[in-house]
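User: Fold this; C-alpha cells only.

Assistant: Input:
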Amino acid sequence: MNLEEKQEFNDQPIERSEPSFSGDQPVPDEIEPGIVKQAPKTKPIKAEEVEEEAVEEEEETESSKEKGRLAQRLKVKKSRALPKIEESEFIEKVLAINRVTKVTKGGKKLSFSALTVVGDGKGRVGYSLEKAGEVAIAIRKSLNSAKKQMIRISLKGTTIPHEIIGVCGGAEVLLKPAADGTGVIAAGPVRAVCDGVGIRNILTKCHRSNNPINVVKATMDGLSRLKTYRLGGI
C-alpha cells in the first residue's frame, strides 16, 4: 500500500455499530437530558371501598365483643358449678393409717384403718379409729366419728390445772402443768391431742409403750380426769 492510500484510509471516519436487541430483551428507554420522569399516579380511593373497610372493622369488633361475652358466661357457669370449700373450724389431724386384713371363709379382705384427732382449740377434743376399703373414705369416717365423740377438758389458762397420769393398756402418759412460754413439750399423738384441746404450755412423758392408739387413749384418759380449776384452788 502506497503512502497516499494509507493516508486516505486513515482519513476515513470509523463507523460504530449500534448494539442490537433481540425481541425477547426489552429496549431501554432513552432518557433525554433535562427531562425528569414523573412518578406513577396513585389510583383515587373510592368512597365505597372506605365504607366496606369500616363495615369489616365493625364486624370484627362485634365478633370480639361476642367472644368476650361468651368467655365471661363460661367463667360464671364454672364458678357456679364448683362447690365452695368452707374452712373447717376444727383442728383435724391424722395420726396413723394402717393396712389391716380380715381373714374370712372366702379369703383375705384388705382394708385401711385411720386414727384421727379433732379439736376446736377451746377445750374440746375427740379421737376415733375407723376402717374402710379406701384411705380417703377411712379418714373421712374417722373425722366425722371424732367430731361426734368430743368431750370437754378443764383447763387453767393455757395449761392444765394439776399433774396427772393417764393409763391405757401398756401405755402410760405423764402430764404436768408448765409456766407461760414453755410450749408443748410433747411429740406424736400427745402433741396432736394437746393442740386439739388448745393447751399451749405443758410437760409430757410417755412410758412403757409407743403404740399411737394406746398413747392417744391414755392421754385422753388423763385429760378427762382433770379436776375443774377454781379461783380459791383446785
